[in-house]
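Assess this one:

_____
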Amino acid sequence: MAPTTLLHHIDLNAYELLTIASVPITLFQVLYILKHLFTTKRYYTASNYSDNVNIFIAMLYYIINGEGGGSLAKLLIGQPLPFISSDFKLASALIVWFICTHLLFRSFKAKQFFVKAFNLPFFKYIFILPHESRRAIAMCVNIMAFIKLAKLEGHASTFIFPAFLGFLSAIGGGLLMNVFEAHLVKGQESYAWSNFLGDSSITSLKIQIPFITSLFYALSYHYIEMVKNEQLEIIDWLYYPCYYAIYICILGFVSVPIINDVKEWLTSSLFVNKQTATVASNDLQKVKKE
């Protein structure tokens, strides 16, 4: 029989990778630094690899892109913002900025090399899959915290609003970052929505996957709670997907870049085949005329 406990969860701070000067380095810290590297890449790209990058704009990038969604969600319920809850977050951003901008990638070509390295197939998935996994885990942690808070304070909504807050924490940073980037860096207002939504606001997996997984995780939490309180009987085929809901959410998040790359590859292949067919048809027509 399955154990009637709360959802299985993942605490990234519980995984100690190594110790430096008696300070334990956890998996959370490594993945958070990886997020800073993605943010640095984004700033270099938006600034067109300029040598005159601004540390104050960079810090806004780290804060908004790193904790923008979580901050929006916390503001809606009057909770302290996540970026001020840990000295590590801002300190690591400053360290990553100094090492990347002032030591390793000072020139235009060096910044270009840094950005291109992230887009190479091998490095891309080594970096982006752990990054997307961390995003999914953070969303699930936020949803669970919001549900517990709603129950503790006796709010009417213990499902829809916590799920929405989790969804907002997952996508809010990207949307805020695009708005900030569009106005202050690129000077293109239309860039904010078009870059965030992709080809279509309806078909964008960037929105669909976090929305679906946030609802699924909130539903799973309530189902497991009802099983624990003996309000429902355990049905294995339903219980286990709910109990391990966090892994399904992770799978959903990591599938987005893979699906987008496959879609892009298929589109480019069809385009090349179409061009080849057109050229062959034109050549055949020329032969017939001759």
About this structure: The mean pLDDT is 81. The radius of gyration is 23 Å. The longest strand covers residues 16-20.
